Amino acid sequence: MNKNDLINNVADAAGISKTAASSAVDSVLDSISSALSNGDDVRLVGFGTFSVASRKATTGRNPRTGEVIQIPASKSAKFKSGKALKDAVN
């Protein structure tokens, strides 16, 4: 499922226009992104938790040349599914 499919499903399920559904989906995604960029977790009970994970700086190798390179520290988004989502998938 891609974003357009999600928008169509939301519009059908809620009985609203695709424009309104698109705005709602974009608002939810923007809110999650904003919270994560501020370092906050987003907990959706039964669905899961979005959080920010920190990765330490490390050394690696360029596979083409074998040269040792420094990989900088970074942050990435992490998702842990909730019990209801796990049960629905299984």
TrEMBL record:
<comment type="function">
    <text>Histone-like DNA-binding protein which is capable of wrapping DNA to stabilize it, and thus to prevent its denaturation under extreme environmental conditions.</text>
</comment>
<dbReference type="GO" id="GO:0006270">
    <property type="term" value="P:DNA replication initiation"/>
</dbReference>
<comment type="similarity">
    <text>Belongs to the bacterial histone-like protein family.</text>
</comment>
<dbReference type="InterPro" id="IPR010992">
    <property type="entry name" value="IHF-like_DNA-bd_dom_sf"/>
</dbReference>
<keyword id="KW-0238">DNA-binding</keyword>
<dbReference type="Pfam" id="PF00216">
    <property type="entry name" value="Bac_DNA_binding"/>
</dbReference>
<dbReference type="GO" id="GO:0006351">
    <property type="term" value="P:DNA-templated transcription"/>
</dbReference>
<dbReference type="GO" id="GO:1990103">
    <property type="term" value="C:DnaA-HU complex"/>
</dbReference>
<dbReference type="GO" id="GO:0042802">
    <property type="term" value="F:identical protein binding"/>
</dbReference>
<dbReference type="GO" id="GO:0030527">
    <property type="term" value="F:structural constituent of chromatin"/>
</dbReference>
<dbReference type="GO" id="GO:0030261">
    <property type="term" value="P:chromosome condensation"/>
</dbReference>
<keyword id="KW-0226">DNA condensation</keyword>
<protein>
    <submittedName>
        <fullName>HU family DNA-binding protein</fullName>
    </submittedName>
</protein>
<dbReference type="InterPro" id="IPR020816">
    <property type="entry name" value="Histone-like_DNA-bd_CS"/>
</dbReference>
<dbReference type="GO" id="GO:0003677">
    <property type="term" value="F:DNA binding"/>
</dbReference>
<dbReference type="GO" id="GO:0005829">
    <property type="term" value="C:cytosol"/>
</dbReference>
<dbReference type="GO" id="GO:1990178">
    <property type="term" value="C:HU-DNA complex"/>
</dbReference>
<dbReference type="InterPro" id="IPR000119">
    <property type="entry name" value="Hist_DNA-bd"/>
</dbReference>
